[in-house]
Amino acid sequence: MVHVEIAAERLFSLGPLIVTNSMVGALLASAILLLAGSWFARHASVVPTRAGSLMELPIEFLAGIVRGTGGRRWREFAPLIFAIFLFVLVANWLSLLPGVGTIGLAEEIDGKQIIVPFVRAGAADLNFTLGLALISFVSFIAFGLRANGVRGYLKELLIAEPAYMTPLLTPIHLISEFSRLISLSMRLFGNVFAGEVLLATMLALTTATLFMLPLAFVIPGVFIVLELLFGLVQALVFALLSMTYITLAIAEHRQHAHADHPGEAPGQAATPIEGAA
Amino acid sequence: MPDLPGSGQRNDPAGPSRKPPIPPANWGLAFDLGLRLGVAVIMGVGLGALVDNWLHTSPIFILIGTGLGFGAAMYTIWEVAREGMR
């Protein structure tokens, strides 16, 4: 019987804090990244080792994209984008390891015996994705505020051009801004949760009868490979969208600065990049 | 790093206006657009329904919210198109 709970299952409580299996998944992903990061920091060298190259590969891949499209101030937000990408990627791929989502405590709910797994994919819980989306949302607002100033940012957000259109355009602008938060969180949650359901369904279908049992070694494997790809794509999309929103918030400032000083080239209005070679 | 896009464009003979054919960041925007259109309409309808429920004015605000949601969806398309044309 296929059983995939949409909400993360409670494992135990620490005082008022309820620890769920998706929290364990997210903490494991954080621990893996922290250990890998500290190992990499200790063993970093000009000529990287084979393991070092493996660590550098995703960073270099994303750095190329951020450097190419993130504008002049890409170094300011690049660490945040890398962190989001690696965290979502590790959390997604962690869920494909054997035992994750399958080993747990047997519990009886409504007369049916189900397994409450010890570890569940972090992003298969809306709390995780909403938390990450909030970080991204607050970051692009903070970058917008830093680039425009509080007055400039509020003017950009709340006052339309021409001014008599403000009562109509301000609610539209606000809905559009907040739709970013919801679309970011829902997309990641929907994709990862759907992946979990798909894998559970395929496993249940192939193990339903003895005749189908040999397929249980093949068909779920195909979907696991697909989930590897989807995990990468979703991590990339989340990170790239966060970067695009931040770039847009800073670019609006450049546009206004250029409009205020028409004799100045657009690029000169932005703060020069720090530490660029 | 002699060829840093965004910082080392003075070394690029084609000048700062040269762009890669499909900037990878736009992949994210393409993924985002479809969902954001739906989310904007749902948010408009949902907010309208909440206000109607609060003020007992159904269906006035749900209609206004639907219009604003569609407006926000169109605004999102315009915003993405403007960014693409920049």
Query: Uncertain regions of chain A: pLDDT < 50 for 5+ in a row?
Result: 261-277
Radius of gyration of chain A: 23 Å
Count of helical regions of chain B: 2
β-strand percent of chain B reads under 5%
- Tell me the helix content of chain B: 55-70%
Class computed from helices, strands and strand pairing of chain A: mainly alpha
Tally of extended strands of chain A? 4
Order of helices and strands of chain B: HH
Strand order of the largest sheet of chain A: 1-2
Please outline the major beta sheet of chain A.
Answer: 2 strands, antiparallel
Unreliable sequence segments of chain B: 1-12
In whole angstroms, the N-to-C terminal distance of chain B is: 26 Å
Radius of gyration of CA atoms of chain B, rounded to a whole number: 20 Å
Strand content of chain A: 5-15%
Shape of chain A: globular
Helix/strand order of chain A: EEHHHEEHHHH
Helix content of chain A: 55-70%
